[in-house]
Amino acid sequence: MEKSKASGSTSLLSKNLNIVGDIQGDEDLHVEGRFKGSIKITGNIFVGQTGVVEAEVEADNIVIQGKINGNVVARQQLEIQSLGELIGDCSAHSIDIKEGAIFEGRSNMLRPAATPPASSQPRAKMRPK
Amino acid sequence: MNLFGKKDKESSPPVVPPQAVPKVAAKNSPKDMALDTTYFGKNLKVKGNVSGEGSLIILGSFEGEFNLTGRLKVAQGARIKGNVKATDIYVNGNVEGSITASEKVHLDSTARVKGGIATPRISVLEGAMFDGEIKMSKRTPQESKPASPGPQQTSPGPVAPGKRETVL
């Protein structure tokens, strides 16, 4: 599942938790709960079996074992496992869809030249004034 | 000569009192345990509302509202802006907003809190900064005892019952 560790730490959204909002950062993320909004991280996302994500998702590697409803951008690889479900369009450098997986939407392959410089986005430092 | 370069006076590593680190020593199912505790790493910025059950540890920054059944731990260096509601709340980082606990609130020595606190039990360590107001709310009904006339939390002062003043 991990191809490249972002910063060595993995954040977890556990099973009985709901979040509505958005997540940004430089970290791997493991979702077992429910999330609605948008996710943009430099790192990998793993949506576990109990995870339900209704969001625009952008990450390096994305592995779906649960559900994602929304458009997905994987700068490297998108993997939908056999229990996984993706309803929405995907853009990825490479895709891996296992037998039994559900995918409804368009797929768009990112070519190295066409890859937006997403990985070099400035890491905004939010400091309350 | 060593006016410069000796700035970082590192004191000995702070010894965290054991009760401040609520580590659950459940060894039988570390995986399940691990998946029960939501964890936001320090490089994560989350905005929005969080609700649900389970414990939560925050190391990064969070803006929004919490409504949690379980333990919330705001680690040192973490920043929270918004109202926080949980069963018990341990603060080692920064919180700006109101804090409401149904069990207890603990402010560690590195805590920086700006806002109101409402809780039935509180502890504050030396070094904590707290700008705001505390309201001692009643404990949630699950633990409230039927008002017993026996030994309560009255001061241990030797006040004989007969000497009690009754103001009419």
Give the topology.
The complex is a heterodimer of chains A (129) and B (168).
Chain A: E1 10-13, E2 17-25, E3 28-31, E4 34-41, E5 45-47, E6 52-59, E7 62-64, E8 67-69, E9 72-80, E10 85-87, E11 90-97, E12 102-104, E13 107-109
Chain B: H1 30-36, E1 37-40, E2 44-53, E3 55-58, E4 61-69, E5 71-74, E6 79-81, E7 84-91, E8 94-96, E9 99-107, E10 112-114, E11 117-119, E12 121-124, E13 129-131, E14 134-136
Parallel strand pairs in B: 1-3, 2-4, 3-5, 4-6, 5-7, 6-8, 7-9, 8-10, 9-11, 9-12, 10-13, 11-14
Would you give an account of this structure?
The complex is a heterodimer of chains A (129) and B (168). With 129 residues, chain A is an all-beta fold. Chain A has no helices and 13 strands. Chain A has strands at residues 10-13, 17-25, 28-31, 34-41, 45-47, 52-59, 62-64, 67-69, 72-80, 85-87, 90-97, 102-104, 107-109. The model of chain A is unreliable at 1-6 and 119-125 (pLDDT under 50). Chain B has 168 residues and is mainly beta. Chain B has one helix and 14 strands. Chain B has one helix spanning 30-36; strands at 37-40, 44-53, 55-58, 61-69, 71-74, 79-81, 84-91, 94-96, 99-107, 112-114, 117-119, 121-124, 129-131, 134-136. In chain B, the strands form two sheets. In chain B, strands 1, 3, 5, 7, 9, 11, 12 and 14 form an eight-stranded parallel β-sheet that branches. The longest helix of chain B has 7 residues, at 30-36. Chain A binds chain B through residues 6-7, 9-27, 29, 32-33, 37, 41, 48, 126, 128, and chain B through 34-54, 56, 60-61, 64, 68, 79, 81, 96.
